[in-house]
Amino acid sequence: MIKRKALISLGIAINLFIWINSILPGNDSANLSGGITEFIYHILNKLNIGISIDLLSLMIRKLAHFTEFFILGITWVFIFKKYNYRYPITFIYGLLVALIDEFIQYFIPGRASSIFDVAIDGAGVLFGLLIIYLLEVFILRKNEIYIDKEKADE
User: Fold this and answer.
1) Within a 10 A sphere around the Cβ of 46, how many other Cβ atoms?
2) Could you list the residue ranges forming a coiled coil in this record (predicted)?
């Protein structure tokens, strides 16, 4: 029971992290992602990898969306574990969080809401669900092989 409460607390913390970042005004959000962009841009320049800073900034911001929702998907699929349709429930939940995220940004100065960001967020959730599904299938298959081997040894 403690493990479940900790998992739910983690899920809620991820939601809050996403929504708190949505509340940041445009300048604050740009400064945060801009600092990360500058850091990576200098590393790429030292490695002689040419990329425009604007493209790199776009890639980093969209990767952040994807990553947040990837983690959200993995966390909430375990929270919804007791439900028969936990994968679709988690996906719908992730899309709902993404829509709320973009709705919040619509009202924040210097921010904009984007259906494209909702699609990226949804892709992050789906990728997280796919990874968990494949791991579960692999582990289940491995356990079945182990059980079959024990039966054969009897």
Assistant:
1) 8
2) none
